Amino acid sequence: MLSHFTRHQGLFLMSVILPLLAFFMCVVAGNAEPSNIEWLDVLGEGSVSLVLLLWILALLISRPAGKLTHLLVIGLNLILFSSLLDLMDEFMDYSASSNWISMMESIPASIGMVMTTFAVWQWHKEQLALNSQWKTREGFVRNTKDLDPITQLYSGEHWMERMERAITHTSCKFKTLVLLDINDFSQFNCHYGHVEGNRYLRGLASMLSLSLPENALVCRFAGDRFAILLLQDSETATTNCISQLIISIQHYAFYPQQSNSPICLSARYASEHIGNLKQIQPLIHRLNRLLDDQHTHAA
Fold this sequence. Notes:
Layout lengths: L1 H6 L1 H21 E3 L6 H24 L4 H22 L3 E3 L5 H39 L17 H14 L4 E9 L2 H8 L1 H18 L5 E6 L2 E8 L2 H16 L16 E7 L6 H19 L1
Antiparallel strand pairs: 1-2, 3-5, 3-6, 4-5
Helix pairs in contact: 2-4, 3-4, 4-5, 7-8
EC number: 2.7.7.65
Catalytic activity: 2 GTP = 3',3'-c-di-GMP + 2 diphosphate
GO molecular function: diguanylate cyclase activity
């Protein structure tokens, strides 16, 4: 939480000061009137204010610093400011000279809604850019609860669902399942530790996602094993894609913490053409056995 405060220090302060300013203005401009409170209005307006506050907190915790984050948080804070003034109306009685409070209830909210609308449009463009980067991970369906926390790739079960859908709707003739296993990854973990191992897998996952065709799907199958669906129009294109992928892994330079020397690992793979959806589970078991046999012979 401290790191989030440091990153958005100004926005956090604004999110505290504006609500306090709203309460202060109401106390200065009017007098408490506890005898004529509409509790149903209090419940509705209070709920709106609470939800706005939770949205602001969620944005500050989850988003990186930047212009878009500033627009969203400032816009929502202005709407919250007006909402709190509206809520305080239920508890206060204002004199004729305090009509400016009514103006303050509407103007900040209007400005905030314009800012938030513009920010949402910018968020839309940001999301389109992220979608293009995540295409090989998601298969156009997002379900973040199934994300692997280390690699940010989908788990095997969710990937299986996306793979079945991709195979059903593709026009490509060659549908190939590839399992990749990183050579000597256990020794790497023993030497550098699991934290560095996780960093390696995270970087490798990003590299795999960027190195694959847009219609491919990749997931972290288990441990240091990755599963990839390749959809190509020819066997030659499939073979070339796998070969280039293996070369990319060999040239992926990972720098451990406090080290200027890169570590490059290699990978072994097993692949087979997918005939129909009923063959997928037996095919996966067969490819797993092939990789395990390769590991045994290499040892």
